[in-house]
Specification:
about 600 residues, alpha/beta, ABC transporter transmembrane region fold, Rossmann fold, six-stranded mixed β-sheet, about 10% strand, elongated, ABC_transporter-like_ATP-bd, transport
Length: about 600
């Protein structure tokens, strides 16, 4: 654990560009190809000023031109040769432009795809506590906006950096070759430009990190509000929520404005520096040409090259802006990828179940669960479960009851290793569940939660979720057992009806019956019913209870309930209070004890009477 944390800290201290290169090392060949095409494209793109200079040289010098010295004396032939060379250069420039555009864009798409999949896959491996401390909107901002920001830079910004660098090197070399005495003055601004770029970069980095943080908070608030739109409408708090979004959006706008104030100053300063070089070429080069120490053609080339140098450098500010945004996003995405996984899968496998029927489990897993002095506490809170020991016999139905906050639902999450216990041991068929592969452990448990989650899709798809190869007959059979078939048949498109996001088109009772059908279809050796009938009416509850007798046969069943009437026939009832097991026995025994269970039972009878 400590090694993972230190490793994460070390990676986070590295420059984001280095971290990105390390992440995308398997694309090194593609990066090399794209880089080569970008450089070659810029080389051929800078050739026209040389061709213009050669043409001026032909017109002025005629048979004494540079081309004439190569053996082509006739002037029309010299111009024809220049035209043919121009055609080749233009063709090669176009070819390499197509090549680098395609290569860089494909690279951007590939890295974007890999990062999103890796980040999402890593998120799925993280424990529930991680999600409780972060907003869904903030995580969505990383998976979507931050990764897209990086893709935008790779799509065009990386090529721009390479081409600006190539331009400076080639034009600088040409200046020193054509007129060494003038080149020094022309190139003099370059170190100041590079120094200024680095200085701007270091000052922009923290500003764009703040921008990414603010947009994450804004997305988190938007996501939260859209999820709670029904509550917002019912409490008529639209104006209040609009004001909260306005505040977050304004903070994002202000952080962007802070970054823009600096980034916008970059281009004018670059222009001033480049203008100094242009004046040096225009004036000193002209003096040299008039004095006969520099040819007219060479002077023309230098003037044109200075212009070619001017515009790319003015775009450097925009490129730098893209780069800093991308690096801020890169840090956020890679920091997520470097988040250590707290709950690790074990190495032992469980025997596979035969899921051919919903009439009962034929799994080789017996389903005996035992807790040995288990203690668990949520982060920075008092223990919810304290030194708890209890036995859940294989194939039996046991119930866990208690007041809200007594640790009932937490116990279920510990069984599935959604959280990790602080001390003690939980065994399944005598095996410590920490030694089992997480996939095997969770696959042998069917969990029907009181907080039912349905995916946007059809009724059939939601019942078959997790049992994707189930036949239509098995799905219908599971729906009938869960008392869901009749209402499904009455829906507009039956089993093909779209339930909406989180199943919002269905009632709470309908959603819960689909969740029960989903668990029945999975046919697990262990079934957990966490308030599974809390959202259904009394008539439906009675029907489901009758079906549950069939569902729970020969299967280890753990039922958590506030309605004690639903668990009175359990083989054993455990009563919890503040994380401790305080009573246990069958319904009649617990009522006779006149303890906590009896009080709860009498209270519910009084409410029902």
């Amino acid at each position: 654990m400590s090694q993972l944390s230190s490793k994460t800290s070390k990676k986070s201290s590295e420059h984001p560009f280095i971290r990105l290169l390390k992440y995308g090392h398997h694309y090194n060949q593609l990066i090399l190809q794209a880089t080569t095409c970008s450089i070659l494209n810029k080389i051929f793109d800078l050739a026209p000023p040389a061709l213009i200079g050669a043409a001026v040289d032909v017109v002025v010098q005629k048979k004494d031109s540079l081309i004439a010295h190569m053996g082509i004396v006739d002037i029309p032939s010299q111009l024809l040769a220049l035209s043919l060379v121009s055609a080749v250069i233009w063709g090669l420039e176009s070819i390499f432009e197509y090549a680098f555009a395609r290569l860089w864009r494909n690279l951007a798409q590939n890295i974007q795809h890999d990062l999103r999949l890796d980040a999402y896959s890593h998120l799925q491996e993280l424990e529930l506590a991680f999600f409780e401390e972060r907003s869904t909107g903030g995580l969505m901002s990383i998976l979507s906006d931050d990764i897209n920001q990086l893709e935008r830079f790779l799509d065009g910004g990386a090529n721009e950096v390479l081409q600006v660098t190539t331009t400076v090197l080639i034009i600088g070399g040409a200046f020193f070759y054509l007129a060494p005495s003038v080149a020094g003055m022309a190139i003099l601004p370059m170190p100041f430009i590079l120094w200024g770029s680095i200085a701007f970069q270091s000052r922009l980095a923290p500003r764009y990190a703040t921008v990414r943080e603010k947009v994450s908070l804004l997305n988190g608030q938007l996501s939260n509000n859209l999820s709670g739109i029904t509550t917002i409408k019912s409490f008529t708090t639209e104006a209040y929520e609009k004001k909260r979004i306005e505040i977050e959006s304004n903070r994002y706008r202000q952080s962007n404005r802070h970054a823009i104030a600096l980034s916008a100053a970059f281009v004018p300063l670059i222009r001033i520096a480049v203008f100094a070089g242009f004046i040096a070429i225009l004036y000193l080069g002209g003096i040299e040409t008039v004095a006969g120490r520099l040819s007219v053609g060479a002077y023309s080339v230098m003037v044109f090259l200075t212009q070619r140098l001017l515009w790319p450098l003015t775009r450097l500010g925009e490129t730098l802006d893209q780069y800093q945004r991308a690096m801020a996003s890169t840090n956020r995405v890679l920091d997520l990828l470097d988040t250590p996984i707290e709950i690790h899968s074990g190495h032992l496998t469980l025997p596979q179940s035969d899921l051919s029927s919903t009439n009962g489990t034929s799994s080789k897993i017996r389903g005996e669960i035992e807790l040995h002095d288990v203690t668990f506490a949520y982060k920075d809170r008092h223990p919810v479960v304290k030194e708890l020991s209890l036995l859940i016999p294989a194939g039996k139905t046991i119930a866990i009851v208690g007041a809200t906050g007594s640790g009932k639902s937490t116990l279920v999450k510990l069984l599935m290793r959604l959280y990790e216990i602080q001390s003690g041991k939980i065994t399944l068929d005598g095996i410590d569940i920490r030694e089992l592969q997480l996939k095997d452990l969770r696959s042998c448990i069917g969990w029907v939660s009181q907080d039912v989650f349905l995916f946007h899709g059809s009724v059939l798809e939601n019942i078959a979720y997790g049992s994707f190869d189930a036949s239509a007959d098995r799905i219908v059979e599971a729906a009938k057992i869960a008392e869901a078939h009749d209402f499904i048949e009455q829906l507009p498109q039956g089993y093909d009806t779209i339930v909406g996001e989180r199943g919002q088109k269905l009632s709470g009772g309908q959603r819960q019956r689909l969740a029960i059908a989903r668990a029945v279809l999975r046919n697990p050796p262990i079934l957990i019913l966490d308030e599974a009938t809390s959202a259904v009416d009394n008539e439906t509850e009675a029907a489901i209870q009758k079906s549950l007798e069939r569902i729970t046969a020969n299967r280890t069943t753990i039922a958590i309930a506030h309605r004690l009437s639903t668990i009175r026939n359990a083989d054993r009832i455990y009563v919890m209070e503040r994380g401790h097991l305080v009573e246990q026995g069958q319904h009649e025994e617990l009522v006779a004890q006149q303890g906590i269970y009896a009080d709860l039972w009498n209270l519910q009878i009084g409410q029902l009477s």
